[in-house]
Amino acid sequence: MKTMMQSPFDSVFDEAENRYLQPEELKAIGQYVASISERMSAYRALRDHEIDLMQQAADQMQLEMPSIETIALERTVKNGMLALRHCAMAMLLNDADYVQKRLLSWLRDSIELHKDQGTDAVFFNLMKQQLRLSLNAQQMALLDPFLSLVDTVIQPQEEEMLTVAGIF
User: Fold this and answer.
1) What is the 3-state secondary structure (H, E, C) of the chain?
2) Is there a domain that residue 142 lies in?
3) Which pLDDT score, from 0 to 100, does residue 25 have?
4) Domain tally for the chain?
5) R_g of the chain computed on alpha carbons
6) Per the domain annotation, does 60 fall within a domain?
7) Which domain holds residue 72?
8) pTM here?
9) What is the average pLDDT score of the chain?
10) FRET partner for 156 with CA separation of 20 to 30 A, picked from 2, 111, 116, 143?
């Protein structure tokens, strides 16, 4: 039988024998509990519409980058799908460490290995556009912080952009 993922609150609950929760800990748990229904709804929407979201983003990518090789497009879509799935789980758990520990270093290495930063950045932006069309504002607000973590890896940094432009 699979064990459940440790929640960010496990350490708080493990301390029950030693002390009562502090006000800020109670507030954090209360906010999480109050938002779990919306988090679950957003997670279900992502799960149920993932194929359509990815297909629409891939179709738009082919229009914007018609010369992209099939293998590069497939790799980029796979990276986008994995990023979305990790962000969805992190959003459900309300745990940014989930994305940090399970996705970002792997994604960074994959992008560097295949030199896919430009295509991944374009696809990720197209995917986020589709997400904004598919999720309501509250669901998007819950997911956005985790997508922003992925942006730090996928989006070209200013120095890299200047180098590509030939300024340096």
Assistant:
1) CCCCCCCCCHHHHHHHHCCCCCHHHHHHHHHHHHHHHHHHHHHHHHHHHHHHHHHHHHHHHHHHCCCCCHHHHHHHHHHHHHHHHHHHHHHHHCCHHHHHHHHHHHHHHHHHHHCCHHHHHHHHHHHHHHHHHHCCHHHHHHHHHHHHHHHHHHCCCHHHHHHHCCCC
2) yes
3) 84
4) 1
5) 19
6) yes
7) 21-154
8) 0.82
9) 86
10) 143
The sign of the CA dihedral 9, 10, 13, 18 is negative
Query: Within a 10 A sphere around the Cβ of 117, how many other Cβ atoms?
Result: 18
Mind listing the pLDDT tens digit for each residue in 84-109? Answer: 999 999 999 999 999 999 999 888 88
**CATH number of the domain to which 118 belongs:** 1.10.490.20
12 occurs within a structural domain: no
**Tally of CB atoms within 10 A around 12:** 16
Does any domain span residue 111? Answer: yes
